[in-house]
Specification:
The chain is 50% helix and 6% strand. The chain is mainly alpha-helical and 318 residues long. It has a domain at 52-195. The strands form 3 sheets. It has a two-stranded antiparallel ribbon. A hairpin with a 2-residue loop joins β2 (88-91) and β3. The longest helix has 21 residues, at 266-286.
């Protein structure tokens, strides 16, 4: 199958393509890819979960944008090491873990009167305040808490300095174009610059633009079809389970035995590159956006009973 594409403004497909064409650790099974395309189509036809299952609304566009942006500022690394309990959050009778728990984190903070949407407050956050904001219901601290602190402080400072405290002003400056929003986010917030030695992934920056586009508003975000897949650890887990990705014996042994995969290693780059391209090819087959294909695969990864572990890499990018 030819790895072709029509549009790659962010150079994600271009820079990841060599790692898919000549892999050392991650191979494609194109027949399995066709089978997964059918599953993705069926999942989309059954309707994906509503936006309010992932985010809550304050009934104000400016504030809703701020919530989605700040959730994506800290949307990374929720897994636990072998034998350890995964971080969980409980609020208002609901308990969740992983990325889905971020909604509870922000809803709880706002419900408790924490001015978490205020850029001035964020710019002065202490690590103890962040630990309280992310306090678990089960005693298991969220991984990389110090990095989440750094990211939130950076977000507050940049929002104050360049956008009058509100991320919605970045949208305005970017003419509500998903690619321009992604670029501006990468350029101004270093925690979103998910690029390694010239290989671009931009997972959180693209996901942020895609998520904000789901907010109902007269300010319609355009050009979301130009976004690529957002390579994390749940998507490749599903792709491997379905037989789309075939790991080398060495890599399979590491992943299955919960060994850490180094951030920026050839193994991690190949896993993420193959994930992007598998999702891209599915999107081409179904004639849908890569973002929609990505979302369907992510939900499938959460809903199916997958035996194989996902790869574990300490990273602020996913």
């Amino acid at each position: 199958m030819n790895l072709t594409f029509k549009n790659d403004v962010l150079k994600v497909l271009t820079t990841t393509k060599p790692f898919v064409e000549a892999p050392k650790h991650v191979q494609f099974d194109y027949q399995a890819l066709d089978e997964l395309s059918e599953k993705v189509k069926t999942r989309i036809d059954a309707t994906l979960p509503e936006r309010d299952e992932e985010f809550f609304s304050l009934g104000d566009y400016e504030k809703d944008v701020q919530v989605v942006f700040l959730e994506n500022v800290v949307n990374f690394c929720f897994w636990s090491e072998e034998g350890k309990e995964k971080w969980k959050v409980e609020y208002n009778g609901a308990e969740d873990d992983g990325a889905s728990a971020l909604r509870l984190v922000f809803e709880r903070a706002i419900g408790e009167g924490v001015p978490i949407l205020d850029a001035e407050y964020l710019s002065r956050l202490t690590i103890d305040q962040v630990r309280d904001i992310f306090r678990p219901s089960n005693g298991a601290e969220i991984p990389l808490i110090e990095k989440r602190h750094e990211n939130l402080v950076e977000a507050g400072k940049v929002l104050l300095k360049k956008y009058d405290g509100y991320y919605s002003n970045l949208l305005k400056d970017s003419n509500y174009d998903a690619i321009l929003i992604t670029r501006a986010t990468i350029e101004n917030f270093k925690s979103f610059n998910d690029s390694y030695k010239g290989v671009n992934f931009y997972k959180r920056a693209q996901l942020n633009a895609f998520d904000i586009a789901q907010i109902l508003s007269d300010n319609k975000i355009t050009n979301t079809e130009s976004l690529t897949a957002m390579a994390d650890y749940k998507l490749p887990q599903l792709l491997r389970f379905m037989g789309v990705l075939k790991y080398s014996d060495e890599l399979a042994s590491k992943v299955d035995n919960w060994e850490l995969i180094e951030s920026g290693s050839i193994e991690e780059i190949e896993i993420r590159s193959a994930t992007i391209w598998a999702t891209e090819l599915i999107s081409q087959e179904l004639r849908i956006s890569a973002g929609l294909a990505d979302r369907a695969i992510w939900w499938l990864s959460c809903e199916l009973d997958i035996e194989q572990p996902y790869h574990r890499t300490y990273s602020i990018y996913y």
